[in-house]
């Protein structure tokens, strides 16, 4: 992906993750559906499980964007399982934790594809000018702690001054409080808002959210 991001007029760069820096491995979602089916002994076809997983993934993302809150990963699991006629009252947190660990292993095996062309060179350019970088990502099935592991594996973590994930603070973009969190984490508290650039692919959560808060914003178009 080539961009026309202006790095000279900004001092801090905030990056969305999904469909900005990375996208899912082409096989990951299929493998996760198979895991869902076998782990919870779901008595439905794989196609039906896949459709339900996608429905609740999209719905929960939309709810988070509209309300500015954050539906927990385990709540998403329970909505999916309840819809697939699994008796969720028979489940406990330990079982859900066990599934999350398995899905994290799967995620790190079928790891996301980096789509932002020459991202390390781009980060190098920013850091060599003494500027700073953060990740600001809404999360769903994949928690922030797992994204950190992935970014370490990809040797991208070294460029990132701080991470903000919606599941860790219970706030989602475009809620202004999540952009305030970026401001709160900056070493230079007096940095003018327009010198902070948020970069993302979502016109509402990323572009409008950052603009409404007072940051500069760059919308990536695929």
Automatic annotation (TrEMBL):
This is HAD family hydrolase. Coiled coil: none annotated. Signal peptide: none annotated. The lineage of its organism: Bacteria, Pseudomonadati, Bacteroidota, Flavobacteriia, Flavobacteriales. GO terms for molecular function: hydrolase activity. Keywords: Hydrolase. Transmembrane segments: none annotated. InterPro entries: HAD-like_hydrolase_domain, HAD-like_sf, HAD-SF_hydro_IA, HAD_sf. PANTHER family: HALOACID DEHALOGENASE-LIKE HYDROLASE DOMAIN-CONTAINING PROTEIN 3, PTHR46191. Pfam families: Hydrolase (PF00702). Gene3D superfamilies: 1.10.150.400, HAD superfamily/HAD-like. It comes from Chryseobacterium herbae.
